[in-house]
Every structure is written in C-alpha cells, then in structure tokens.
Specification:
Length: about 120
Amino acid sequence: MEIEAKVRSNPVEMEQYFDIDEVLNIRYYELLGGQVYKVRIRMAECNISVKGLTSLGKIKEKVIRACSEHYRIKSKVTLKNGVERVIYSCNDYWEEEYAKRFAHYMKSEVEKLEREE
C-alpha cells in the first residue's frame, strides 16, 4: 500500500526515516518549503487515512495500531555505543535484520536485543 502525505519534519529526521525505518518505507520526498515535505510512503496493507499536515511519527503510530497483526514483535535494540531504539517486526528473522541495519547505519554493533511485546 502507498500513500502520499504532507509532513512537517527536519532534514535529519527525514533522512533517518528514509534510510532505516522499518515501518515506513519512504519512496520519495520533496521539500515544499520551511520544514514541510511531500512524501510517498510504502507500508503494510492496512486501513489508515492521513489528512492535512502531520508528522512521520504520527503516521508511524497509526500504521502500527492499524497493522497490529503484522507488527507483532516490539523490541528494544541497544548498540555498543549506547544508542537505543524501539523496532517493530513481524517475525524473528526481521527483528534481527532490522537491528543489524540500525547498527550498521549508526556505525556500531548490536549489544542487546530485548523483546518488549
């Protein structure tokens, strides 16, 4: 499923969502002005709607709630450099894969991966 939306974001946040987010697969983004972007997002099939100006975090929350059967696993990744992040996945393979991708992006290694749900 793909949607288009206008989001308020800063360049650093936009780059992180574009490069490593496991829920929102940003296919395209364009700066409209200020900190407003037009984005095209690919995600799991779910019933959500996005109207008006919003944030990537709010869209991600909606997708996780609407696709709860797809994103069954919620894990906390801790890297050797101390950075932590919560990741969502559908099975054990993708849980480990997303943790490795995050570590690679942050130029570190996974120290701990603990399941929250």
